[in-house]
Design a protein that fits this description.
It is built from 4 helices and 19 strands. The strands form 5 sheets. Strands 11, 14, 16, 18 and 19 form a 5-stranded mixed β-sheet that branches. It has a 4-stranded antiparallel β-sheet with strand order 5-4-8-9, with no helix packed on it. Strands 13-12-15-17 form a 4-stranded antiparallel β-sheet, with no helix packed on it.
Length: about 300
């Protein structure tokens, strides 16, 4: 005799926002626990903290304005599209200090199922080498330990006019045909991690070569324009002050103009310059002062908005 099971009620739930974060230097998922919050912009609702799943995805439950999506009707086939568009600000903090804190905007509903950005939009859109679509990248903090096999390029940016840290400046470097990007924190310090290129003689199948003597030219440029930065959490009192002082990642990467950089105090500033990376060594960028002494910082001046 078999038992008959009668379904009395079905409880259907849907998560409108889940985000997996990726390490921009290693191009792999971030394993360390993060603190991730979302706030419905322009409202008095408190921020909601995401819950990290066993698979490393940060899922939001109970977001203001998403009740209909989170508890869709039984006959609703597309809960990912339920509701009117609402703007949320997301803040990401790394308690371990390996990654820079970031803020970015999200519009819900996403209109597709799956993790944030899995609808085919790369993050950041201009990343080079091209990043896979559907990945939200975090950038290394200046104090992060350098993983084996990667070259560290460091810079401490300062405003040439005031000497104050050039917070949120963007450093771009091209070495061996590959372009990478780093972001300076509020203290003006940036860390760019790139794989050491393969020496040309090894590529050509020549006899063994001492890689310690290998060098590569690196082309640099900087973008910095404080007036172009947008602050997503600056619309309401009572929010975390660190979030309020944090510009959006999109405005940092996409909306700042090219900066003038003083590689030498006695010469005119430049938009681009070249330095040399030596295998196995860190490259520290500095402004050369009058008399040949090297400053502890790189002097830059704010640029204009890109066309």
């Amino acid at each position: 005799m078999s038992a008959t099971i009668r379904v009395l009620e079905r409880d259907r739930t849907f998560t409108p926002l889940g985000i997996r974060f990726w390490d921009a230097a290693l191009d792999q998922p971030v394993a360390e626990p993060l603190s991730v919050h979302a706030w419905l912009r322009g409202t008095a609702h408190p921020p909601v903290r995401a819950v990290r799943s066993t698979g490393g995805v940060y899922a939001f439950h109970g977001l203001p304005g998403q009740a209909a999506a989170e508890r869709p009707a039984a006959d609703e086939e597309h809960p990912e599209s339920v509701g009117v568009p609402r703007e949320y600000a997301v803040a990401v903090d790394d308690p371990s200090g390996r990654y820079l804190p970031v803020a970015f905007g999200v519009t819900l509903p996403l209109g597709y199922r799956g993790e944030f950005l899995s609808g085919g939009v790369a993050s950041p859109p201009q990343a080079s080498p091209p990043r896979a679509a559907g990945r939200a990248y975090l950038f290394p903090a200046a104090g992060r330990a350098v993983p084996p096999g990667l070259a560290a390029i460091r810079a401490d940016f300062a405003d040439a006019a005031t000497g104050e840290p050039a917070a949120w400046a963007v450093l771009t470097a091209t070495v061996a045909g590959e372009t990478r990007t780093a972001i300076a924190g509020q203290d003006g310090r940036a860390l760019l991690l790139v794989p050491f290129p393969t020496p040309e003689r090894l590529r050509q199948g020549s006899p063994p070569v001492d890689t310690r003597a290998a060098t590569w030219p690196v082309e640099f440029s900087v973008r910095w324009q404080p007036g172009a930065l947008r602050y997503l959490f600056a619309e309401r009192d009572g929010l975390n002050p660190a979030w309020v002082a944090r510009p959006s990642l999109k405005s940092i990467l996409d909306e700042q103009g090219a900066a003038d950089t003083w590689t030498d105090e006695d010469q005119e500033p430049v938009a681009e310059w070249t330095d040399t990376l030596v295998h196995g060594r860190e490259l520290v960028l500095r402004t050369t002062l009058a008399g040949g002494e090297r400053a502890s910082t790189v002097w830059i001046s704010a640029g204009a908005s890109p066309p």
